[in-house]
């Protein structure tokens, strides 16, 4: 359950999806001797001192963040062999049932609409295909431990939006800076929750992508959508 504000409004549902389900899968992994790769998030950190490495200590805020970290602990405690794959702001084309950040942004920019993005939240935007390649490698090679499987750049959301405009040919003035504190969101968001990708870059064949490369791949998938 990844919709942050929905988790805050329904914490029991968030716990069932992100903790209880992780526990059950980890128990089954133990029964059959499987290697378990669990997908987690940069939101396990409070965002006071990012970007974060795999060795930094989580301090989750809000129901979503707390449930994801508790899910990590369930996997680490119960699975016989495990990897935690932390990622952030996953985007790609085609979108799934709910628009991801990149697809939502495109839906606005295609119509020439102005879009408010946070200039005070720094994240690691991550192309879904690239994340998938890293996660599959963690599974096939049975690598252990915590891994930041994310994009290779830490930027604020305004910088991401303007970089996307540059690649896609949209007017960058459509991106309007705003502040987290003015958004009135139900759940707290970490301001500096970017992830350091040095470990994955050094050890995996599937490397974290630079921002422009990931946006070019996103653009190619979007152009071929028909």
Provide a concise account of the structure shown.
The chain is of the alpha/beta class.
What does this structure look like?
The chain has 226 residues and is α/β, with parallel strands linked by helices. Helix 2 (11-32) packs parallel to helix 3 (63-78) and helix 6 (157-168) crosses helix 8 (211-223). The protein contains 8 helices and 9 strands. The two termini are 30 Å apart.
What is the beta-strand fraction?
15-25%
Largest sheet: 3 strands, parallel
The DSSP helix count reads: 8
Decide which structural class fits the backbone.
alpha/beta
Query: What value does the average pLDDT take?
Result: 96
Helix and strand run: HHEHEEHEEEHEEHEHH
The unreliable regions are: none
Helix content: 40-55%
Shape: globular
Number of strands: 9
Q: How widely separated are the two ends?
A: 30 Å
The radius of gyration over CA amounts to: 17 Å
Strands across the major sheet, in which order? Answer: 1-2-7
Secondary structure topology:
Elements lengths: L3 H6 L1 H22 L2 E7 L21 H16 L2 E7 L2 E2 L9 H9 L5 E4 L3 E2 L2 E2 H13 L4 E4 L6 E2 H12 L6 E4 L19 H6 L7 H13 L3
Parallel strand pairs: 1-2, 2-7, 3-6, 4-9
Antiparallel strand pairs: 5-8
Helix pairs in contact: 2-3, 6-8
Features:
two-stranded parallel sheet, alpha/beta, 226 residues, 8 helices, 3-stranded parallel sheet
